Amino acid sequence: MPPQIPIPRYTVPGLSTKEGGRLIDLLNMRLHALNDLALTLKHIHWNVTGPHFIAVHEMLDPQTSAVRGMADATAERISALGGVPQGTAGVLVAERAWDDYSVGRADAIAHLGALDLVYAGIIEGHRKAAAKAASVDPVTEDLLIEHLRSLEQFQWFVRAHLENGSGALTTADAGSEEQAAAAAGPPRTIPAKKTANTKRTAKKATVAKRTR
Fold first, then answer.
1. Cβ partners under 8 Å of residue 135, min gap 6
2. Which of 2, 35, 80, 138 lies at 20 to 30 Å from 163 by C-alpha?
């Protein structure tokens, strides 16, 4: 549970300092989510492999730049409300409610399967924050809605790679990034010398997708 942000000494006209404090608290968590997403996108950009490498590698850089812009706009809104944007890695890790992205070097489509869950988490978090801001400050709500337009478009770009022949997502039943990566990526083959009398057991992942 992230600590409550102190009530600011001043805020924007038309809001009480208590209302400003609530919005600052809300936006600091969205700032963490956006900073984490930007780092995750770069991590994937560096670690994709396979025949779809160049397409996915180049698709992610514009998304990273856009998300960094969203983080900057969020931080500036926090400052305008009289707050202090928390942008250091230590504060992000201490206050976030989710774990690090869990896929390392892997096939590009496998990464997109995991990234779909990342986008789903941040979009859900942004929608909840926008709903809370709506009753207090339409300017903050509008900022979050603007972010959602781009975030949902980026998720669409990702999901276009994950549709099967019937139009369903190959990762629809995944409950974790590892499961989504396994469902989306190419099947792994075992060398012939290791297949004799080998039993394969499927482990069910227990880590559910979390709202970011």
1. none
2. 35
